[in-house]
Amino acid sequence: MYTLTVRDHVMIAHSLPDPFFGPAQGLHGATFVVEVTWNRPDLDEHGVVIDIGAATTALRAVLDDLDYRNLDEHPAFAGRLSTTEVVAAHIAQRLVENIDTAPFASVQVLLRENPDAWASYTHDLTGA
Predict the structure, then answer these.
(1) How many domains does the chain have?
(2) Sheet holding 117-124, edge to edge
(3) What CATH number should be reported for the domain holding residue 87?
């Protein structure tokens, strides 16, 4: 399996209003480092997984909708908590909506909250 990863970041605000989240219940900010890994079994006719520029542009387009936004007010998160895991899944789902996914086996989105904590979501594209 071949992979290509691109990275960017996004600055958001949100709250996690459940006692489970302790001090994160209140409104707070986060800067997520976002890594997207495209996976496919074979390289394309150009010898790449995906063009790095195309992958970077696709990621930035998704992040532009989240950057400097309060996710508590974002329609994509209405009625659900915007945990790191949920935000990773949201980014992955938006990415695969905007690109030809036929050659890819999966797309993984990893969000780093800080150097010591991160979460990821893998969107399987094989139909399995």
Answers:
(1) 1
(2) 69-70, 2-14, 28-40, 106-114, 117-124
(3) 3.30.479.10
pTM: predicted TM-score of the whole model, two decimal places: 0.95
Give the pLDDT of the chain (128 residues) as one tens digit per residue: 999 999 999 999 999 999 999 999 999 999 999 999 999 999 999 999 999 999 999 999 999 999 999 999 999 999 999 999 999 999 999 999 988 888 999 999 999 999 999 999 999 999 76
- What is the domain range of residue 81? 2-124
